[in-house]
Design a protein that fits this description.
Elements (H helix, E strand, L loop, with lengths): L6 E6 H10 L1 E2 L8 H4 L2 E2 L6 H8 L7 E6 L8 E5 L7 E5 L3 E2 L3 E7 L5
Antiparallel strand pairs: 1-4, 2-7, 3-6, 4-8, 5-6
């Protein structure tokens, strides 16, 4: 897995709406804060479906899929082992994601299992 190409983040609708006002997105998986996690957890394109199945299978509301250009990030991007126990490497943004780095969004509807 390389650090090239787009990365993605699954955002709760209300957190993405707040980020569009503030200009910064500071939430990681399932709404935990950047301060709690130390990073914003993202996924490579080929990881998105597995993340939806693994972490959002019972999530009852819509999600927003953020497509992020790593070249536009102002915070460090690192590929690190995720907490799933599988050894998969995920891109983590160590700082807020500016809304300028998000090049497209898509609304996803449950169920995600």
């Amino acid at each position: 897995m390389s650090g090239t190409g787009l990365i993605h983040h699954l955002a709760e609708v209300e957190h993405w709406a707040a980020a569009r006002v503030s200009g910064e997105y500071r939430r990681s998986t399932l709404g935990r804060s950047l301060e709690e996690e130390g990073f914003v957890h993202c996924a490579a394109p080929e990881q998105v479906a597995d993340v939806l199945r693994r972490y959002y299978s019972t999530y009852p509301r819509e999600l927003v899929l953020l497509s992020i250009d790593p070249g536009r990030l102002t915070s460090p991007l690192r590929w690190e082992v995720g907490g799933s126990g599988t050894g998969d490497r995920f891109p983590h943004v160590h700082g807020p994601i500016t809304t300028d780095a998000v090049i497209s969004t898509a609304v996803l509807h449950p169920p995600f299992g």
